Amino acid sequence: MRPLVIVIDGPAGAGKSTVAREAARRLGLPFLDTGAIYRAITWKLLSLSIPPEDTSALREELGRFTIRFEGARVFVGDIEVTAEIRTPEIDREVSPYSALPPVRESLLQIQRDQAVNGLVAEGRDMGTVVFPGADLKIFLTASPEARAGRRCLERIARGENAELSEVLNQVNRRDEIDSNRAAAPLRLASDAVLLDTTDLAFEQVVERVLELAARVI
Fold this sequence. Notes:
Rossmann fold
């Protein structure tokens, strides 16, 4: 049987990462956290004071960028950045960097290489650009208010301060950037299943994903 590829796209705070990770665990498939890849390159470029602009310095650093996963741990080179890539600063800056065509192009093959044994991948262009031939495409969405509330809870769980109004503004800003960028904008693939999670509990969303996966296995 060929490796099964399932992709879950959607806007920030829709629950893609947590749902995809749990679905992958239950299906016995690798989980690809593409958001972590973009967050990691954002962390690297910020650490070098390279702005989100298409410059020779940015392209040179992209050519040197390496990332690896050890379970839920993320490493850039030999440096673990698991916690560092989940800060409010990275939340604010990841979209401007990920909107740059050279960033998306350089990370495209890194993502595709992970599918050799099948996977569950989450992101914003998994079904439209990275894995257009995926066996199952799901688009998770939710109201901006629901997504902002989830982000607040995540930050509070990490011991950070979080104001709902501020997080909602960040969610709306990221939606605008992701949906209107020139390279691989956030959009619903024509053959994707739309799943609104606004009023669904986590377990309900996972069960729905597993039901859809059972149809293509």
